[in-house]
Amino acid sequence: IVAAAWGRVGGGEGRAPGAPGWILRPRHTAEGVLTGWNRRSEEAGARTGVPLTSSPFAPTVLEARLRQLQAARVSEVTKGGEGTAPGLGGHWAQKLDQEKWAMQRRKQRLQAKLQVRAQQLACEHRLRMVPQLLSAPLAERLLRWEQETPRSPWEEQLARLLREAPRRLSCEAERAHEAGGAPARLETQQQRLLAFLECCLLSGHLPLAHHVLVTCHGKWRQRRVLTLAAYNTVMLGWARKGSFKELVYVFFMVKDAGLTPDLLSYAAALQCMGRLDQDARTVQRCLDQMAQDGLRLQDLFSSVPLCQEEQAALLQAVHKAQPTFSPPLQPQPEPQVNTSPLLREIYAKEGPVSYLPSCTCLCGSCRLLFQQQLQEMATTVTVESRRRSCLTKEVLARCEQLSAESQLLGGRAGCGPGSSPGPSARRASFGAIDASAGLCLPRPQIGILKPHPAFTQLLATAAEHTLTFEAAEVPMLCPPLPWTSPHTGAFLLSPTKLVRSVEGTTQHQRLLDSCPPAELHGALDALTQLGNCAWRVNGRVLDLVLELFAAKGCPRLGVPAPPSEAPRPPEGRLPPDASPAQKAELRRELARCLKVAREMHSLRSDALYRLSLAQHLRHCVFWLPHNMDFRGRTYPCPPHFNHLGSDLARALLEFAQGRPLGPRGLDWLKIHLVNLTGLKKREPLQARLVFADEVMEDVLDSADRPMTGRKWWMEVEEPWQALACCMEIARAVRAPDPAAYISHFPVHQDGSCNGLQHYAALGRDSIGAASVNLLPSDVPQDVYSGVAAQVEVFRRQDAKRGVRVAQVLEGFISRKVVKQTVMTVVYGVTRYGGRLQIERRLRELSDFPQEFVWEASHYLVRQVFNSLQEMFSGTRAIQHWLTESARLIAHSGSAVEWVTPLGIPIIQPYHRDSKVMISGGIQSLTFSHSGDTSQRPNTLKQKNGFPPNFIHSLDSSHMMLTALHCYRKGLTFVSVHDCFWTHAADVEVMNQVCREQFVRLHSQPILHNLSRFLMKRFCSGARSPQHLKSTRTGKLQDTLRSVPKTGAFDLKQVKHSTYFFS
């Protein structure tokens, strides 16, 4: 009784406690009762997550139920007398039998339902062929025609359908057409469905495409995504197979949708007739109906895109009815070729060409590589992490310290072990712990709850040692797709933008779409060529880096240390009577430690990604697809592992395809090594070769014992690249024939302050050209040293006049102090930014009086700008013209646009930010959005960004021209902006191409072409803003017409300059 009552309370009559809906069904024996209960309890626990048998009352209930059944059995046996057969009887036996039969009936009914549902699902999953028409007369006619197929051939039904097809669009289509077309979302859905149907046809899944078409057509809401092109796609597929019955099904759906067949519809029908060799009468009826619809037979061969085999089948059908018909001769379309004079040689068919294949593998290997790259279908790639974490004693001690601090703060807030703290206590407890150091501050803070670093480290230790990347973030295992349009190229499946832009901006894409396709051929082919370079990992360098990375890093060599090595804040607490200055100093120290810890974490994570990917690709050949930014500068698409990174990142990579060194290759390896050391920048090439021979013992020692030897390579500017070069030189000099040694090592040739080189060439500035090695010379010219010398001249003059800061700076003006400012002034750095750069350099000088840093930086940046004005007068004039033009264009309400010499349209993406505030009960959120269509341009950014962006577009054009011509000559070529890479054996050829293309580029009237384009774009009558005063437009016209005058520098001398790129 107690058990029964408890069961009713637990969720209804006969329900088990804690598991509603599970009925206690007793068995014929006591063991059966226990078995049934335990099984159902386990099932209910598995469903609800709560094990019923774990209840402390479960054994008591079972025992009571067992005694109840035993008592009932004894009672029935006693009443039955001696003649009663042994076994259960009476009330409980009848009840159990009834329940048993009820369960059997329920099981039978459930099995029957499952069988029916399985049949329904099988029917649903079966590909449908017969359409479900919404028009009752059409549906009845289709059914009658199917039943009368033996007496009424399908050709007759097709003729009737063509004859009875509507001559105009349906009412719904007309209304949509009058309203201006379908919305953008509907149009996107239609394009996706059409793309799916085309993919089904190309992959041999035509029945699936037909099934999808029938399914969408049979539902009124889904029918709106079907267009005539979708029906034609499926019809064309059945026509290719010669399946006339299925083609008529599609024609029924076209008529049911209220659409009129077009040329492609008739082409599919006639093509199918030609394949089936139909009689002339059937074909003629189809041609007559096409003529009644106003369609010409000749257009089937001139306007419909059909392959040669399909046109042959179509012509075979037409000849059945009209034997004398001959298709019109199709005029050959003029080839779309870039007309730029800079690319005329690239696309010329005459002349010797020695293109280098992107990989030497056979077709079978290529097919295997493409199959491996189809990992993009998973959208993510998981690689093994190179992180090696462990529960160290320091981490455990930190956790104990955290626990002690939490208990201490809890006690201070009045929270005992058994009490629950109130809101104020929780605020004091959590707010008084600094997130980075676990330090108690004297005043409570209200902010965001963050996990303690010790707890974060525990989580990191317990995490799985794998990293997951998006498929587009990992280098490709096969050659990238060639760039054929702004929408097609790079990865096989992952969509890639040709031009990198902020998400949501559309101005660059609109410009590219409106540009004639042939104008982009040069840029697209250059990107394809850069992506075709095959790479592999330098295993020896990777092993050394991983060893250091696992041993707490080495920041001096560019291997970041783990966050556990971050500086610790001072321990202990401030005394109660601490002064405000002491508190402020503590806060500054805490902020410094937090900043350093964050920077170390960021650097460590970046190195972790790079090294994990390098280990993942260790034994693979891979490729780096490229795209470009809005200026035309090219970048590899995979962000974590490429050749645009630091010294460490570059040292991990080498060419997968090797080339013999040849007679001069070893010399270029030695010169490249000396360039990486940074020790002989002012010396000629021959002196660098002599120096390389002098340090050959150190080079070989570095290659053989990098971590245990003299470690010469660690003291140079680019240590890891220098080490990789030492290893390559060691293998080459020890080879039986160094000239025959196959080298995979990339050798660099870097421009000498490339931005100033372009400015000097634009202005034909002889003085500036000599400073940046555009003129031939016996030794390399160093523009930074030249500027420093000019600044020193100004300083001496001011010191004689008694200027205090000039006297203090005596002996402190060096190349290093002015280099960064000189290098960035060509890219638009302001006096304020230049002052900050010089201030940082002065603070690095330990013997410079720090109290004069601010005044000295102001003085030096002024003198640096004056020196550049005197040394590069033409450069400053061009910069001023570009800045003023951009300022006036931005004031007129437009963003600055131009076209590069290779035809790439450029627009600056600098617009005013629009701020949207969302008010809430607790706080207000402000979102800042910079649109490119609805917002006015940011005048300051437009004018300051135009000069450097214009120069960047020129150096990108020079690089692309060099890349295309090197590819035409059979060279492997990649670049890091103005640093060009190739094999050691090909450096001289690449240098020749580089100089020739620079001269050809600047032989064009670049500034005058820019002036004409800006005049046409922003000063024509149609483009002139109506709300501005005419004086402003007139000033813009006068400014654009006043192109800076050029000097007398002869560009052809660049071809003979040894140190132009070196």
From TrEMBL:
Residues 559-581 are annotated as: Disordered. Its EC number is 2.7.7.6. Residues 282-532 form the DNA-directed RNA polymerase N-terminal domain. InterPro entries: DNA-dir_Rpol_C_phage-type, DNA-dir_Rpol_phage-type, DNA/RNA_pol_sf, PPR_rpt, RNA_POL_N_sf, RPOL_N, TPR-like_helical_dom_sf. It comes from the Eukaryota. It catalyses: RNA(n) + a ribonucleoside 5'-triphosphate = RNA(n+1) + diphosphate. Gene3D superfamilies: 1.10.287.280, 5' to 3' exonuclease, C-terminal subdomain (1.10.150.20), DNA-directed RNA polymerase, N-terminal domain (1.10.1320.10), Tetratricopeptide repeat domain (1.25.40.10). One of its GO terms (biological process) is mitochondrial transcription. Belongs to the phage and mitochondrial RNA polymerase family. DNA-dependent RNA polymerase catalyzes the transcription of DNA into RNA using the four ribonucleoside triphosphates as substrates. This is DNA-directed RNA polymerase. It comes from Panthera leo. The gene is POLRMT.
